[in-house]
């Protein structure tokens, strides 16, 4: 078998040598066929005998440029989103400021209604107590003192207190 190889090696010349050189795995790095191919065709034929490997992807510079571009695009989007979010926040605050007098008036109306109902309950409960003045202030001042939670909800049922604490939402 070694004799046939050596005889084949000596017979390879010209186009058959080039064809043999381009077969995958036919020429090793320091094989006699490769040396003979260089002698017959010159060093330019070595390029033809090299393996044709595909590129492995983008170069380092292009990957770096893509990374910088993605970073800059992300920063630009974040700046744009922060500006939009700030505008929305200002709009929400302006709406809240505009609605604040209405909300305070509703809260005061609810408080006065509860105080009136509490005074009616107090009159019914304390009707048999002598020298009891319904609605008399427990504070020694003439200024308005906002009622405490206990004053508003002291005569209410526990379900009513819970419903007010949850904003009149019932969870099933």
UniProtKB/TrEMBL annotation:
Describe its membrane topology.
Single-pass membrane protein
Q: Where in the cell is it found?
A: Mitochondrion inner membrane
Task: Name a GO CC annotation attached to this entry.
Answer: respiratory chain complex I
Main subcellular location of this protein, as a coarse class: mitochondrion
Record keywords: Electron transport, Membrane, Mitochondrion, Mitochondrion inner membrane, Respiratory chain, Transmembrane, Transmembrane helix, Transport
InterPro entries linked to this entry = GRIM-19
Name the domain of life this protein comes from. Eukaryota
Q: Name one Pfam family in it.
A: GRIM-19
Q: Where are the transmembrane segments?
A: 58-79
Family, according to the entry, reads as follows: Belongs to the complex I NDUFA13 subunit family.
By its UniProt entry, which PANTHER family does this protein fall under?
A: NADH DEHYDROGENASE [UBIQUINONE] 1 ALPHA SUBCOMPLEX SUBUNIT 13, NADH DEHYDROGENASE UBIQUINONE 1 ALPHA SUBCOMPLEX SUBUNIT 13
Report quaternary structure and partners. Answer: Complex I is composed of 45 different subunits. Interacts with CARD15, but not with CARD4. Interacts with STAT3, but not with STAT1, STAT2 and STAT5A. Interacts with OLFM4.
Describe its function: Accessory subunit of the mitochondrial membrane respiratory chain NADH dehydrogenase (Complex I), that is believed not to be involved in catalysis. Complex I functions in the transfer of electrons from NADH to the respiratory chain. The immediate electron acceptor for the enzyme is believed to be ubiquinone. Involved in the interferon/all-trans-retinoic acid (IFN/RA) induced cell death. This apoptotic activity is inhibited by interaction with viral IRF1. Prevents the transactivation of STAT3 target genes. Complex I functions in the transfer of electrons from NADH to the respiratory chain. Accessory subunit of the mitochondrial membrane respiratory chain NADH dehydrogenase (Complex I), that is believed not to be involved in catalysis.
What name does UniProt use for this protein?
A: NADH dehydrogenase [ubiquinone] 1 alpha subcomplex subunit 13
Q: Which gene encodes it?
A: Ndufa13
């Amino acid at each position: 078998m070694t004799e046939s190889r050596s005889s084949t090696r000596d017979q390879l010349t010209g186009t058959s040598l080039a064809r043999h050189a381009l077969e995958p795995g036919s020429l090793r790095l320091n094989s006699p066929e490769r040396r003979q191919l260089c002698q017959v065709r010159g060093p330019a034929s070595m390029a033809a005998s090299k393996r044709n490997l595909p590129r492995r992807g983008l170069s380092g510079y292009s990957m770096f440029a893509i990374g910088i571009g993605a970073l800059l695009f992300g920063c630009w989007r974040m700046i744009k989103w922060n500006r939009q979010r700030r505008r929305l926040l200002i709009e929400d605050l302006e709406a809240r400021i505009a609605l604040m007098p209405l909300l305070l008036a509703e809260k005061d109306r609810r408080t006065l209604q509860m105080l009136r109902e509490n005074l009616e309950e107090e009159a019914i409960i304390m009707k048999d107590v002598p020298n009891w003045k319904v609605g008399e202030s427990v504070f020694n001042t003439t200024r308005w003192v906002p009622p405490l939670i206990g004053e508003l909800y002291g005569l209410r049922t526990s379900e009513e207190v819970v419903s007010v604490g949850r904003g009149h939402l019932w969870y099933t």
